[in-house]
Write a structure and sequence with these properties.
single chain; mainly alpha
Length: 435
């Protein structure tokens, strides 16, 4: 996630709200939601409402930290201030790992969108094509992509509104009266998989709000940084309304049991009606918007590795630049991309669920750092502590829910493996520094 405000221009609170809406909506919503809907049925609405609440508390904590303690850097700066160098080092690598996994999830999602047109095309081939194109853009320069980020954000919002209008028309029987769902044929059954289904779905609901941590850091770009909480509140209200309304319509048009994790639930709902070109236009928008987000993630992980190297938290070689391109960092990013494609080749069936689960978990581990830093540096009132505890409980529920699903469970163990590696690297770094 690399959403950026216009250079040399301070933002009003409402501008930041709408930038946030466009930037946060991504493949976690357009495709990841299919997993949540399949697991929870109509109870998915509860999952997204709970995730929105937890996300708001995380955003508010970071926005308050940024507004009152404006620092260059990121959450790593606050973690370092709160707990010392070990926290800054480990937080930086947790976030880098989460962004790498998110990039892999986006790459897989793009390949799945392509299968709407070419169902027999292997995921790894499409992923390799988009990866090569994205890496080429990074190598040449991403200024054009950065300038078009707001346009891509508007396209994503337009796609959601288009779906809501078409789905609403289908619901009232204006498109095909013979297929209009009745109150009896449209199942409103909550908890089709019991409470466990809701528990498992919570992680994917949180994942759809991924990127809010970057918006929290943009508080210093506001004309009045104290407006950050208000801006975030409006942003999250808009996102939550769009999410809940669109999922409600999906579930009124399609039974949860017919939702395929390897297809956008919105396309599943649209393709059952004879609407020329609309599903194809919708899928095209998903690919264009998803590709822009994937390129932004590639750029983010490359520049983040350079920043870690500049601050001594990564090997210095990654800070080297050649013709304004950090070649060693770029090669590292490319290597991980190749690894992602290799995994897609070996595990084509459940690759999206695995990468999305691991990415969502690493993102939540970073959010835990944000909450702990806020508690240490700023939280003073009982209300602050209550919000932190509530967010912790919701996040811990989301993390633990992955243990109850055989598809999500591998992602949990991947995230634990990464955390273990980072913990070992942190220990080695501290031992060398003290020696």
């Amino acid at each position: 996630m690399t959403c950026k405000p216009p250079k040399d221009n301070k933002l009003s609170w409402w501008q930041m709200s709408f930038i946030g809406v466009g930037c946060i909506i991504g493949t976690g919503y357009f495709l990841g939601s299919s997993i949540a809907i399949q697991k929870a049925g109509f109870a998915v609405l509860i999952a997204y409402l709970a995730a929105a609440t937890g996300t708001w508390f995380v955003y508010e904590a970071l926005a308050n930290l940024t507004a009152h303690h404006p620092e260059k850097g990121s959450f790593r700066t606050y973690a370092k201030q709160a707990f010392g160098n070990w926290a800054g080092f480990s937080n930086g690598w947790i976030y880098w790992s989460s962004e790498m996994l998110i990039m892999g999830s986006q790459l897989t999602a793009l390949a799945i969108f392509v299968q709407f047109w070419f169902p027999k095309l292997p995921i790894w081939i499409s992923a390799a094509f988009f990866a090569a194109l994205g890496l080429l853009i990074i190598l040449i320069g991403v200024k054009l992509v950065e300038r078009m980020e707001n346009l891509f954000g508007m396209m994503k919002v337009a796609a959601i509104i288009m779906f809501i209008l078409i789905a609403g028309a289908a619901l009232f029987g204006w498109i095909d009266p013979t297929k209009a769902p009745s109150s009896t044929s449209s199942s409103l059954m909550f908890f089709p998989n019991g409470g466990i289904g809701l528990w498992v779905a919570l992680l994917y609901a949180f994942y759809a709000f991924g990127g809010v941590e970057v918006m929290g850091l943009m508080a210093q770009e506001l004309k009045d940084p104290k407006d950050a909480p208000k801006s975030g509140k409006i942003m999250l209200v808009i996102l939550t309304v769009l999410y809940l309304l669109s999922f409600f319509l999906v579930l009124k048009l399609v039974k949860a049991t017919k939702i395929d994790p390897n297809e956008s639930p919105f396309l599943t709902a649209l393709t059952q009606y004879d609407i020329p070109w609309i599903p194809h236009v919708f899928n095209s928008i998903l690919i264009i918007a998803g590709f822009s987000t994937m390129v932004a993630s590639l750029y983010a992980v490359t520049t983040m590795l350079v920043t870690l190297a500049d601050e001594g938290d990564a090997p210095h070689v990654f800070a080297q630049k050649s013709r304004k391109v950090p070649l060693p960092a770029f090669i590292m990013t490319s290597s991980v991309v190749v690894l992602s494609i290799g995994i897609a080749l070996l595990l084509p069936e459940k690759i999206f669920e695995y990468t999305t689960t691991a990415a969502g978990l690493m993102l939540l581990y970073n959010w835990i750092f944000i909450l702990l830093s806020y508690r240490k540096l700023m939280a003073s009132s009982s209300l602050d502590h209550m919000k932190i505890i509530t967010a912790f409980i919701l996040i811990l529920f989301a993390i633990s829910g992955t243990l109850f699903d055989k598809v999500s469970r591998p992602g949990f163990f991947v995230s634990i493996g990464l955390i273990t590696l980072i913990a070992c690297a942190t220990y080695i770094k501290l031992k060398r520094k003290s020696a």
